[in-house]
UniProtKB/TrEMBL annotation:
Pfam families: NAD_binding_10. Gene3D superfamilies: NAD(P)-binding Rossmann-like Domain. It comes from the Bacteria. It comes from Secundilactobacillus collinoides. One of its GO terms (molecular function) is biliverdin reductase [NAD(P)H] activity. This is NAD-dependent dehydratase.
């Protein structure tokens, strides 16, 4: 396949890209604002690095040529605007499969004291995630899987469980390697979890806050 990673400098995005280079024959397009931020690993033969802003529609549409799947690792308080631009560019380029990095709380699904704490901790970002979810639901021609990971750790482990869009969120934390592993599963089989939103956490991490707080 040919896969475009938007926001390719993100920590999880880099884990995903490196695994795809090591374990597959897929062709990668790494789309980011500052290409100098990537290391030598991005100079692999099957990798094309495109420097640009998602809001630069012409640049993004060109980068999407012959792409089969997009993995969005975009973020920030302007996520809704970025998502709108990404969806429009995908429609223009005729790309119909999206894996979208969202966040816990995007569906108001985190219960109890942890849910209340999370609302305050990422209050500046949750409106963007929630608006992005609305935009995705209003764009059925783009088949999307949203990921809602718990608070992220850099632990060297792959250990996670999933919850559906209609289930209360479990756990408080999960490793970036775990999230990357789930993304790789979706990229290897894009038929999984279509038009769904999946929560990711490490089993046994339930609590009022992540363990390091």
């Amino acid at each position: 396949m040919k896969i475009l990673i938007a926001g390719a400098h993100g920590a999880t995005a880099q884990l995903v890209a490196k695994r795809l280079i090591a374990d597959t024959t897929d062709e990668l397009v790494l789309f980011l604002r500052d290409a100098k931020r990537l290391g030598d690993w991005a100079k692999a033969d099957r990798v094309t690095v495109v420097e640009g802003d998602v809001k630069q529609t012409e640049t993004l549409v060109k980068a999407l040529t012959d792409v089969d799947v997009v993995y969005s690792n975009l973020g920030g308080t302007d996520l809704a605007d970025l998502t709108s631009e990404l969806l429009a560019a995908m429609k223009q380029a005729g790309v119909h499969r999206l894996i979208f990095y969202s966040a816990l709380g995007a569906l108001n699904e985190v219960p109890g004291k942890f849910g209340a704490w999370n609302e305050q901790a990422i209050a500046a970002f949750l409106p963007g995630f929630r608006k992005a979810n609305d935009l995705i639901l209003k764009t059925p021609e783009i088949v999307t899987t949203q990921l809602r990971p718990a608070w992220l750790t850099n632990n060297d482990e792959v250990a996670y469980e999933t919850t559906s869009a209609t289930e209360p969120f479990k756990g408080t934390e999960v490793s970036r390697k775990s999230v990357a592993d789930f993304v790789i599963r979706l990229l290897k089989d894009p038929s999984l979890y279509q038009n769904d939103s999946i929560g990711l956490d490490k089993p046994g991490t339930d609590g009022d806050q992540p363990s390091w707080i």
